[in-house]
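Fill in residues.
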């Protein structure tokens, strides 16, 4: 029975680490810690104040909500399924697939974006 007790302690300990990482909570991803790094690394080279390809800026909330030349909101708070950003980052080929090139977002990055958008896309106003 001693082995079973040790197993339980290890399991409970790992669950505590899992919960502490935010993965097992209902908290949305944090914009500054989780979303902004994705935008900076993969989106801002084309969609920020220096450059706004296709009329889209992701560094300004109002612009991201309005969307670019497509006429569709890049971010539809509470509805990732209606967000052009999610549609484009989940495409694997074609001109509309984002980011351009062969290095696409990871499944984990897309999951963070979806979860953040579905939670209302909370972020500081810029």
């Amino acid at each position: 029975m001693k082995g079973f007790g040790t197993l339980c302690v290890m399991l409970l300990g790992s669950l505590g680490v899992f919960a502490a990482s935010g993965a097992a909570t209902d908290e949305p991803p944090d914009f500054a810690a989780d979303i902004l790094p994705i935008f900076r690394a993969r989106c801002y080279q084309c969609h920020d104040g220096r450059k706004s390809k296709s009329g889209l800026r992701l560094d300004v909330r109002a612009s991201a909500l309005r969307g670019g030349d497509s006429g569709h909101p890049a971010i539809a708070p509470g509805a990732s399924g209606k967000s052009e950003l999610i549609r484009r980052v989940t495409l694997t080929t074609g001109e509309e697939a984002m980011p351009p090139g062969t290095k696409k977002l990871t499944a984990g990055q897309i999951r963070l974006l979806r979860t953040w958008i579905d939670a209302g896309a909370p972020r500081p106003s810029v």
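The longest helix spans residues 2-20.
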